[in-house]
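Researcher: I'm preparing a figure for a lab meeting and need a structural model of a single chain. I don't have an experimental structure, so a prediction will have to do for now. The sequence is pasted below. Please return the structure as tokens so I can convert it later.
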Amino acid sequence: MKVGFAFGCACLAVLAIAPSVHAQMSPEAVAALQAPVDVKRSQEVETVPLVPHMGKYAIQASVNGVERSFVFDTGAPTMISQELAEQLDLKVIGENTGRDANGKEFTTRIALVDQLRIGGLTFSDIPVLIADFKISDPNGCFIGAGVIGSNIFPGSVWHIDGEQNVLQIAAEAHDIPGLQRASADIETDLHIDGYPYAPVFDYAFGSFEDRALFDTGNSDTIILFDRVTGDKRVQQAIVAGSRTEGRGSHGVSAAGIGATTDLLRFELDGMNLGSALPRLSATTRNAPPSLIGLGILNRYHVTLDYSADRMMLHERDRPAATSVYPGYGLMMRQGAVKVVQLFEGSVAERAGLRLGDEVVAIDGRDLSEQPGACGVARWLAEDRPTQDASTLTVMRDGAPVEISLQRP
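Model: Understood. Here is the structure written out token by token.
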């Protein structure tokens, strides 16, 4: 789950543990990762509020009796902060080095928690990764206690409703009201190949075929691995005139901020998941795999049916309003708000905004006046003032300069 943009992307990649790494682990760690998920239910369908949080969703859960707020991230395994692990006095049984969403190496420790409770669900003897989130989130604004992720999904159906902001969890899809009678608009197989049991599925553009990950830790809608866009069959699905290029970072992930690189945004028409998706916004990332992100919930309810190895999309009754990318992205970096993405030909770029500029005010609102260490980050991520901002004030040579974003 990447963190931090005032608008747009953000993801902790699946820190998968390869078979070759198992040989370096204790037998206890290998057994814990391979053990089936043990879940007990207090009712047929568990309904859990999805709380909008910094451009993501958070849920309440308790770990060994300690209740905290966790980011709900389908694209990552369950992870907890070092601070929570120390509070719980967890025994470390192994270590893993994987790669984050920016392709950087990131080391975590492995522990077992006796009980993970989400509402009336109790998951027993669950492996968790212990991570130092201060690398990516020094003030604890975005991640907090950790991430509830895909390694607890097997054996259950996870229905994500972005219209009502609820997560429904059941043993079978027909147990969930609405799914009993509604056929999916789009249905595709899930390929669940072992820990962390990530929701991976096939997609295609004509004869081009690949696999992607459903990742609620990324705020965008479709995120293609950048090498995929070099294929002519994929290029044919990019809507003419929609392609915009820029420079900047793909965001902060577990091992820190991604390097400055070429960026691309566009509209895609006809991505096939068994049936064709309609025209949707898309961007790229510099590490595999391709993703469908949280933005898909603006149009569809998503059901991850691990009991039948399938993913289903049902169209919402009222799709959410489409957000227009403003052509630049802001992020809190070392106590200051910086321009971390800028696209060619955008109003902001033509007005003189520069990559790396420090922004001190938006529409005259002094960013230093936001309360607390997380006040600015929360305002940028949740209120999204950049979407319709008229002016940005940046610092140049020690003096404030106002940049007008009004279209001529």
